[in-house]
Amino acid sequence: MGNVNKTRNEDSEAHLIGIYEIGKLLGSTFDLDKSLHDVLNILASYLEMRHGVVTLDDGTGQQTLAAVTGMGLREARDGGLKFPMDAIRPVLEGSMPMVVPSAVGEPSLADYVAEFLDPDDDSLAFLCVPVKTNDKPFGTLSVMRSRESGALRGFQHDIRFLTMVGTLIGQTVGLYRKVLADREQLMEDNARLQKQVIKIKPAARAAGLDEIVGTSDAMGRVFAQVQQAAPTKATVLLRGESGTGKEMVAHAVHMLSKRADKPFVKVNCAALSESVLESELFGHEKGAFTGAVADRKGRFELANGGTLFLDEIGEISANFQSKLLRVLQEGEFERVGGAKTIKVDVRLVAATNRNLEMAVTKGEFRADLYFRLNVVPIFLPPLRERHGDIPLLADHFLKAFNQENGRKVGITAKALQTLQRCNFPGNVRELENCIYRTATMAQGDVIDEIDLSCRRDLCLSSTLWDGKPGQGQGTSQFVPAPTAPHREPSPSPTPAPPAAGNDEPATEVDLNSLDERSRLIQAMERCGWVQAKAARLLGLTPRQIGYALKKYDIEIRQL
Predict the structure, then answer these.
(1) What are the backbone dihedrals phi and psi of residue 426, each rounded to the nearest 5 degrees, phi first?
(2) Whether 40 contacts 166, CB under 8 Å
(3) Backbone conformation region of residue 427, classed left if phi is above 0, alpha if psi is from -120 to 50, else beta
(4) Beta partners for 334?
(5) I need a surface site. Which of 168, 208, 341, 397 has the fewest CB within 10 A?
(6) Per-residue pLDDT tens digits for 177-186
(7) What angle do CA 330, 333, 339 make, to 5 degrees?
(8) Helical ranges in 85-200 per DSSP H
(9) pTM summary value
(10) pLDDT tens for residues 116-159?
């Protein structure tokens, strides 16, 4: 009896560790195939359960292999594994576990066990449990286990443990399928919305859009989407490259909503560390940390009844994502260092230049938070896709310059034509800088073509961004002294489009600068290859770190 109790205690401890590891694994990634395969590996390493297999309903009522050990999944599906689908049918139909003490002696398992078991070896048992949530099973989890290890307790302990694992798998698969279904529905809704929006005439702009300059079709679609989404309570996610005017569009959404007379509060998530961001958004109580000398309201409280704009939402940490998700789901939170639950009514507008879909698949961004944010996505076009708006924007910025500086600087048609041939990787912000710089340095009261930096061999945008439009996300600080200027051909009757129009005298990133490359690698290694942390360490923005990694051809390591 003493040996039996000892064995049970050891198995209970192993099962507890196994459940912990499996639960942690299933909650850490959105890659279902990899998760299921790793679960089987845990069963083998901790509990000596071999030849694990997970089957799932393929959507047509038929079971298909979802994870196997000992071979690749594709090879197994192509016939490399003769798994007994007929033998596990009672588990699916009766929602009850199955134990076959002698796998070799069971005819329905003969072909399966013959692949990896000596016909004279009668030491393995076959255990199978249903994979389900609260409904009818939609899959199975099966393993082989030594009969000797289960003889003392009749496998009841193993079955209880495997049933818990099957439930965990069922919940994970259910969530995974729900996310995929929501994504498909969202894409269908977005496609339908796009078709409806295109029918709206771009010229019909409301008063809240007055400050946004543009008459192109691309901006017309943006204006139409803003007008359609603004009156609702739906969360808006603004997508687009840096410098495309996401903050102005966010303000337009607020001004066109029923909350226009309430606060419009904005926060740049990339500019703050996680601890500071939490205090900024949720507030803190007196004494919550060093320097907290008084109670302080957070941005959510300040925006109560109005709109909260979260810029660079893609840069928040995984830990903070879960905290933000709770506020979006429940509309409540606690201040840092406080216990009182605070409820708020806030309309959220978020913005990012990251590919959130890719971040979700890599496990860098929570899928549930992604779908909370991506209710109404609005894509802002880069300036290179709306060249027709450049003259309007240039005139707008020139008028602002004249008003601020008490001048009367004009611009010629040739200068505007030259600007229209530029790609402007920095988008509207780069064009604004170009106009202000040129107007400041102009000798007279008229900006001509020759006054532009690109016509005086001072624009290094094409060199800085390798001539690839849309890659300029800010000037990297990993730069040596300026190189020789890039000289463009003189204009001809049919001029070829010049290089991207960053007219700021920038310096060129030297890809052969080993010191700077080494410094960047050291910073990334020190921060566990988390770009946001490395950016703070080096005093850069996450976009600058991302650009530097590309320029120095540094491969991102997954730890």
Answers:
(1) -85, 5
(2) no
(3) left
(4) 341
(5) 341
(6) 888 787 777 7
(7) 135
(8) 89-94, 110-113, 147-150, 156-198
(9) 0.52
(10) 666 556 678 899 999 998 778 999 999 988 766 544 456 888 88
Q: What is the DSSP-derived secondary structure letter of residue 336?
A: B
Contacts of 382 (CB under 8 A, 6+ apart): 240, 241, 244, 424, 427, 469, 470
How far is Cα 327 from Cα 368, in angstroms, rounded to an integer? Answer: 13
- Report whether 397 contacts 239 (CB < 8 A): no
Element (H, E) at 411: strand 410-411
Which is it for strands 376-379 and 236-239: parallel, antiparallel or unpaired?
parallel
Rounded Cα–Cα distance for residues 524 and 128 (Å): 45
Mean pLDDT along residues 99-118: 81
- Look up tokens 């611009």; give the residue: 411
Sequential DSSP letters for 444-494: SSEE-GGGSGGGTT---HHHHTTT-TT---S--S---S--PPPPPPPP-SS
- Pairing outcome for strands 236-239 and 410-411: unpaired
Q: Enumerate the domain spans of the chain.
A: 2-177, 200-372, 382-476+487-505, 514-551
For the CA atoms of 161, 162, 168, 170, the dihedral, rounded to the nearest 10 degrees, stands at -150
What's the rounded Cα separation, in Å, for the pair 239 and 64?
38
Q: Nearest-CA neighbor of 127 among 98, 167, 160, 170?
A: 98
382-476+487-505 carries CATH number 1.10.8.60: yes
How does pLDDT run across 404-436, given as a tens digit for each residue?
A: 999 999 999 889 998 998 888 889 999 999 999
CB atoms within 10 A of CB 389: 21
The topology (CATH level 3) of 200-372 is: Rossmann fold (3.40.50)
Higher pLDDT, 425 or 251: 251
User: What confidence score (pLDDT) does residue 382 get?
Assistant: 93
Amino acid at 235: T
DSSP class of 557: P
- Burial class of residue 341 in the structure, from the number of CB atoms within 10 Å of its CB (0-12 exposed, 13-18 middle, 19+ buried): exposed
How far is Cα 475 from Cα 461, in angstroms, rounded to an integer? 10
The structure tokens listed for 456 are: 């005086």
Beta carbons within 8 Å of 46's beta carbon, 6+ residues apart: 14, 17, 18, 21
Whether 68 shows a pLDDT value over 70: the answer reads yes
Of 396, 338, 397, 325, the C-alpha closest to 366 is 325
Instruction: Record the tokens describing residue 413, joined without a space.
Output: 């048609």
- Residue-wise pLDDT for 462-515, tens only, equals 555 544 444 444 333 333 333 333 333 333 333 333 333 333 333 333 333 456
CA distance 387 to 419: 9
Superfamily (CATH H level) for 2-177: GAF domain (3.30.450.40)
